[in-house]
Each structure stands twice: as C-alpha cells, then as structure tokens.
Amino acid sequence: MKGEIRMRLAQWRAASAVLAGLLLAAVMVYAQAAPHFLGTVTAISGNTITVKTAQGEEKVDVPSSAQLKRIEPGQTNLNAAAAMQFSELAVGDRVLVNLDPNASSPQAVRVVAIKQSDVEKQRAQEQQEWAQGVGGLVKSVDPAAGTIVLSAGAGPTPKMVTIHTTQATVLKRYAPASVSYAMAQPAPFNTIQVGDQLMARGERNADGSEMNAAEVVSGSFRNISGTISSVDAANSSLVVKDLATKKQVTIHVTPETQMRRLPERMAQFLAARLKGTAPAGRGGDANGGGRPRGETGQGAEGGGGMDPQQLLSRAPMIHIADLQKGEAVMLVATQGAADVTAITFVAGVEPLLEAPASQNLLANWSMGSSAPSGDTGEPGTQP
C-alpha cells in the first residue's frame, strides 16, 4: 500500500513538473506574441495617437496607466530608455507601441518613442562628421589589428590614412548596385577587401594621417576606361570597349548615375595635375588656364589651388543622349564582366587616360560625391 502511494506521489510530481513547464512555455510564447506595432506619429487628439505603420494607420488610446519611454536614436536596449510624459509626444516621433491584449479596443500599455528632434540633431551631427571624414581606396587590411590603410585623394602622391576600428565601430557594406548609404547593410570586418572604395567618419589626428573610426562603409566596384562603341539612348545604355580587358561592356545608365563632361582645358589641366606637371604659381583656372576672365564656362578663376576632385565636381552635367560613338569615357560601375550599371560617368577624358592616377581620381570622387546623410535608429523590442 505504501509503495503504491509513493508511486502515485511520484507520478503526481512528474505531472506537476510537466504542467509547470507547459505553463511557462505558454507564458513565454504569449509574451513574445504580445501585439505591438512600429511607426510614425501622424496625429494626436486627446489621449489618442494615430501612427502610420508599414501596413497602414493605427489609432490607439494611451491611458494614464500606460508606460511611456524615450530612447535615443540607434539604441535598442530599453534599459537605457528614460521616462517621459504623454505631453512630450509630438507628430513626427517614431514609436513602438505595445498593446493591451485584454482591451476591447486598441489601448497601449507601453509606448517607446524616438523624438524627431533627437533624430534631426543626430543627423546634423553625423552629416558634419561625414563631411569631415575620409574616403578613398583600400590599400591594405589588417583584421588582427582592426586597421585599414586608405589611399585618399588623387595625384602623383595620394595621402595614406590609417583607419582604426574597434568592436564599437559601425561597419556597413554598400549594396552591389549603388553607393547609396541608405541601402548599405551591416557587414563584418572581413568583408573589407583591398581595392574596395571606403568612407569613414570619426576622430582624426592632427595631421589627418590616422582616424579612430565611429563608422565605416565600404563597397566593391569596377573602374572602366574606354571608348564608346555604340549608344542606345532610348534604352539608357551604351557599349564601351574597356581599354584594360579589350572587351566590350554594356553600360546601363539610371536616373541616379552622375554623368559629367570635362571641358577640354579642364581635362588637360587635371591630367597635368595628376602627372605632377601642373604649372607653378596660380596654375591656371579650373579650365586648365588660358580662359579670359570675361569668357563664360564651368570653371572658376584660381582653380589651380583646388583639389582635383573639386575641379571634377565643377564639370558640366550631361545626359546619355549627349554622348557620341568614339568618345573616351571613364566610369565607376557595379561589378560585372559584360553588363554593369554606371554609378559615376565622365566623358571628355582623353588627356586623363595618359595619367595613371586618373582612375583613383574618379573612384575617390564617386565616394565623396555620395557622402552619407546620416541614418536614424528605431526603437528596439528588447525588454
């Protein structure tokens, strides 16, 4: 009899343990599946907020019992959030709203907000940091030390900058078909390769030879120099014979492609600058010298003191219909053997083809002309 009682007690305890485990699992699933949505506040009326989400608009009541938190852009751990008042919410704020599953109508139990003013402040700060950052071609990578040596600028003696990264450094990689910062995705350090184009922001030393990077964004692109074999303006494409591979490459042009044409004198002046043979003194104007002050043009007097990439940015913008068969062109494009999309494209470059440093000029310019404009974080979902 006692043995039977002991056996029944053991069975009851085992069943209780299983039941407790199932109950705990159910609670965990419920907590993870608690209804919530993320979006931007578009209206506030009384204690009701309207939030625009990816799926549409949501209206939710925020009772006085709801927990309201304010978090800084980029933060994902709510332990760092600070308490806030409902009156501090404003149209334009990003919010994560946790709903009360027992309420008969949408009602918030918690609202976590990123203030629009905080986002704008962070964006302005990051824009300034990117403007003071550095861009160029990766010359070497040391994964063990977390350092990258960058060739910045163009000319006979481009400046070498050592980029130091830590675990706190934000590392991103451009999407294969663009140098759009908005499309860049997080990527590990080992994705950075020699020959990549790279931009970094952070704290530089006094002579600018080193930087402790807060953020690095890199990408792998193809540099092409050659002559136009044919132009199909209707389909926004052209065929170029690559001087390096001697093969024909189909180039696709998109609305985002930056297209410019160098005036002849500007091209000659840039070629001389890159070869280190530019005349001393004023060095001519941005059109390579010799242009009378009263004559109109894209150049500026005193351009000889400008950086070659600044001169390139002064060249007139063009469209694919302006191109002719037989023209010499240089471009930075997406990776591909016979079919690529142009990111930056420059015509009128015959004199530059004789300057070995000209490819670095265009590659570095394509990075500098697409400097990131900042990013915004979203409220995290971690408790």
Structure at a glance:
By secondary structure, this protein is α+β, with helices and mostly antiparallel strands. The chain folds into 3 domains: about 35-120, Copper binding periplasmic protein CusF (OB fold (Dihydrolipoamide Acetyltransferase, E2P)), CATH 2.40.50; about 135-220, Copper binding periplasmic protein CusF (OB fold (Dihydrolipoamide Acetyltransferase, E2P), Beta Barrel), CATH 2.40.50; about 220-290 and about 300-370, Beta Barrel (OB fold (Dihydrolipoamide Acetyltransferase, E2P)).
List keywords for this structure.
about 375 residues; OB fold (Dihydrolipoamide Acetyltransferase, E2P); 3 domains; 7-stranded mixed beta sheet; 5 helices; elongated; disordered C terminus
Query: Which fold name fills CATH's third level, the topology of the largest domain?
Result: OB fold (Dihydrolipoamide Acetyltransferase, E2P)
Whole-number count of domains: 3
Mind telling me the CATH class of the largest domain? Mainly Beta
Question: Can you identify the CATH superfamily of the largest domain?
Answer: Copper binding periplasmic protein CusF
Q: Give the uncertain stretches in residue-range form.
A: 5-12, 14-33, 280-304, 374-383
Shape: elongated
Count of DSSP strands:
20
Structure class? alpha+beta
